[in-house]
Please model this.
Amino acid sequence: MHEKCGVVGISLSDRGAARPLYYSLYALQHRGQEAAGIVTHDGFQQHDHVGTGMVGDVFDQEDLDQLNGPNGIGHVRYPTQGGLGACCAQPFSVSFKSGSLGLSHNGNLVNTDEVRQELADLGHAFTSNGDTEVIAHDLARNLLEEDLVRAVKSTMSRIHGSYSLTIMHDETVLGVRDPQGNRPLCIGELEDGYVIASESAAIDTLDGELIRDVKPGELVVLKPDGSGYDTYQLVERENTAHCFFEHVYFARPDSVINDELVYEVRRNLGEALWNESGVETDVVMPVPDSGRSFASGYAEAAAEDGADVEFAEGLMKNRYVGRTFIMPTQDERERAVRLKLNPIKSTIEGRSVTLIDDSIVRGTTSTQLIELLRDAGAEEVHVRIGAPPIVAPCYLGIDMATREELIASDRSVEDIRDHVGADSLSYLSIGAITEALGKDDTDLCLGCVTGKYPYDIEGEERDRDVTRPTIGSPASADD
Ligand code: SF4
Model:
């Protein structure tokens, strides 16, 4: 599973934004490793540098030196829509009659084709098939007729889906979160300015203070002199659709989302896992690094219940295996497990083991890991997963897998257990997720674990009443 993107925007009083943006992108690197970019504005003109690769590969000293100006936005990308390569790296930037525009997007629109077709009929030419360019063109068009706030509102009334955006119009930096708040976005204060970022870990990296999450449907406009910000609640919805997987997997454990430290949420989910399906084995071990916080919560709850369970690291990770082995073919994926993880025999040999992870996607990794543990002498291998089975794909910005590739899309838990070769297998219930996050299921996106989505996605069921904007009629900022 790969997160699609991370976004950031910064306005400072009297120093360049390029370096703080660069550091923030490092802090958000886990959200996308395929491309990175920064766009700044010096009060007269826009400067940009984007490229494919990790943040450290994309920028050198010279690149940062030419990114002048105290205002800017940045982006790290994992491509799921719009193709691979430098043409689709973000921020997307465009110059038009009333100025310059830069745009960074995390999420996926689900009505891109309709909006693109309408804009193409009006004479807009596109350089990519991505949804971000569509948002940029729509906004540029609206800015010819409306002020900034009304233009953003008009665009929001036309696009449908998941989006957390940082935008730069000339030297003004904005942050926008979709009306259901699917992806995270937060605002923080620095000594000499303000920052908007996908996760609070980016604010911490700059020695800043998290102020709060950007609200679903809210626009935040940073003052270009770094002295403050204005906010506008442009769209209000009764329910939110926060992606529960941000808490389970995607976000950094040291980030705070919805006022909750992600690490603590994961530990609570681990505790719930013990309460729901705890099994007393000699040792409890995480799949590194994804299962670690769950396993520590699980083991602590087990100990509190008086279970004689040792919490230990039994699988050591080789941190120097690059992403080359993560992606392409099934064969390489299988080899990757052996390259990435090595069992500690003395922890495992002759013992019963509970292996804890956050999810099972295709089942390949779990099968390999269980085999690895048995080869290392484990007598029993029980698997506990800190999320419900993933039964359907994500259309909202996560590169998960197709329905056919998802092991749980057409198999029962018992069939999966048999397939991966575990002695027992249990997943966490949806109820435990909603309880740990302190949200009703009507305020979360649970699409990939229920097969019902909080957005109108062609060919899929919805779990609530959501209407797509009708494209073709004039957009109204008063909607
Ligand atoms: S479908 Fe799953 S991964 Fe995608 S946004 Fe919804 S909860 Fe998150």
In short: Residues 262-277 form the longest helix (16 residues). The mean pLDDT is 91.
